Amino acid sequence: MDFKLKCMACGAEYSPQEIRYTCDCGGLLDVEHDLDSLRGQVSRELFDSRLGDLALPYASGVWRYRELILPLDEGAIVSRPEGNTNLYRSPRLSDWLGVDDLHLKHEGENPTGSFKDRGMTVGVTQARFLGCQAVACASTGNTSASLAAYAALAGLAAIVFVPQGQIAFGKLAQALAYGAKTLQVRGDFDAAMKLVRQACDELGIYLLNSLNPFRLEGQKSIIFEALQQLSWEVPDWIVLPAGNLGNTSAFGKALYELKELGLISRMPRLAAVQAQGANPFYRSFLGGFQQRERVEAHTVATAIRIGAPVSYARAVRSLRWTGGLVAEVSDQQIMDAKARVDAAGIGCEPASAAAVAGAKKLVEAGIIGRKEKVLVILTGHLLKDPQATVDYHLGKLAGLTPSHANRPVTIEPTLEAVQEALEGSL
Known about the structure:
The chain contains 16 helices and 13 strands. The protein is of the alpha/beta class. Among the domains are: 1-33, no CATH class; 87-113 and 221-393, Rossmann fold (3-Layer(aba) Sandwich). The strands form three sheets. Strands 4-5-13-10-11-12 form a six-stranded mixed beta sheet, with helices on both faces. Strand 6 (134-138), helix 5 and strand 7 (157-163) form a beta-alpha-beta unit. Helix 4 (116-129) runs parallel beside helix 5 (142-154) and helix 13 (331-343) packs across helix 14. The N and C termini lie far apart (64 Å).
């Protein structure tokens, strides 16, 4: 195999056929590709030639880049397929944010409604390649939905650990529907994460949280595909929501590899955006990453409600590679930004809107310039958390003012009532 597992901390190397998630020293592992050999194999033209392919693996927006993801035999791949998500322009959102050249990549258009499918197709493919019979994850919702779907497709047993009462029903419903054994943990996500790691180690179950380096290889394809959609023109900024820091880690690695291979000539800057109530990475950033911060997480954006992100070291590296930064936004800013994205006809879940709110905040602070090209990543579908959407418009979110509320109107069953309700609207 022309790739290996390598420890970020001590440099120890392991076979990719060994089941492990961290080094013996405790450091995080990378999937390290042989970039020297790949220089003569991969090119923009190669990837462009696969666009529009109707058959797997290249019909997938992940496996189109398989040399840079996981170069296994095609018959080993477990795919729905995923990826091929759209890149949107919206003059209304551009005006609101204050930038002229805004692009939104909507990962909510993946099969289970979030970017997690990109990592899970690779993680489950690797699990089956290793001969595993069961896979597991801790999740605030999206990871569990994706794992359940891909495990079912591959014929593997799926176990998901979710924090009781802290998962949106739109996500819980998917885990149940796809047949996963769902364990509701009395505690937060971080408690569920600790428990799933113990269970996987003791019970021989393959762990598929973003601690698993193969998951992040799939998530790199968000960047590969977005740049391909931009005709390989690199934006000035890539803004994304940050919870467990898997995407922050994957994006930096993707950009580093593309730069090393000569597929891009410069690095964009990453801006990772956290909710104020779940902002350990932001706090660490303020201190120059001299100390790793942890918090008890509270935010309406359940997908990023994480107080001790596992991919911390990888994410720090990504920011150093790209000259990136971390920002924080309030729940009020998140939900107002979500209302704007929704009203533009695009729609997203609250965590996605954190990136939009963060981009606006950075523009207002003069950090992002009006003339700069900005790519914002929307990570999840609007229907992932419909309750938050409805509660916002009905004014039922505690402590928040629905600045862009679109309240339903109750009327009598008469034409006169319709005319009265529509007065000023037509």
